[in-house]
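task queued by scheduler; priority normal; single chain, no ligands, no partner chains; default sampling; output format set to structure tokens
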Amino acid sequence: MQNVAQDTTHLLQEAGKKTTQTVLEHSSKYHDAYTTIDKIIDSFWSRVPYICIAIVVFIIFWLLTKLFKFFVRKTLENRSYTRQNLVLVLNRVGTSTILFFGFLIALVIAIPGFTPGQLMSALGIGSVAIGFAFKDIFQNLLSGLLILLSEPFRIGDAIVCNGLEGTVEDIQIRATFLCSYDGRRIVIPNATVYTSAITVNTAYQRRRCEFVVGIGYDDDVTKAKEQILKILDENRNVLSHPDFSVNVTALADFSVNLTVRWWIDTTETSIAASTSEIQEQVMIAFNEQGISIPYPIREIKVSNDATAMDPLAK
């Protein structure tokens, strides 16, 4: 019995030692983890003041962009030679540059050991991949800058590009925004705008209007032309220079077609309004003067020959 008790005691001691050793091993592991976490937390709290300073510095640069925009607007908007798109270019390029430098300075302050050279070297290593991945973005960006600098059109102009028509809402670095005449937004990439033929409907203040009206072959062409010229001469929205005109342009199947052309000032009226007004006055004048505006007529001839009417008469 004594030997059994000694063996049991020995086994318990061995088990206790192993358990103690295992606990100590796990405790040391957890201790290392806790120590690492404590170091991370301590380093974070030690960098908090620098992070706050970096945020303040970035906010200061952001406020500088607002001051830069205000300075550009006040300096250039009152100049007679100022172009609208030039102000947009200076604002966007200038603010982007200021924010970029502010971001670099904030990183230098917030991250220990960081230098702008490291960022440049990282960009240099990935420049090929970035170039392929962002080829379209860079192309649109460059096209947007060229459009803003060359100024083929401005915000508020009515343009036609690749069959898309509308009023220019905004010219951004990536795309040009149009508002269609039925109230929809059209977004066209700047690369497409720069390489396509553009029709600027509002580039000039004077615009020509025209429409075609037909009269009957039995009507007096000279009288019809006189009536139209009188209407154009008396209308206050029709410009006297360049001269308005009425010409016979086609001898159609059912009518003699007269093409009416005149010029207007788009600041006084629109093409649609002026065309509608002149057409209405021409219709009223023709009715008063007995001048017809013919429509297609089909003439059907019926033969009186009985044999032609009765196929059994043969």
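post-processing summary
- Residues 2-76 form the longest helix (75 residues).
- The chain has a mean pLDDT of 80.
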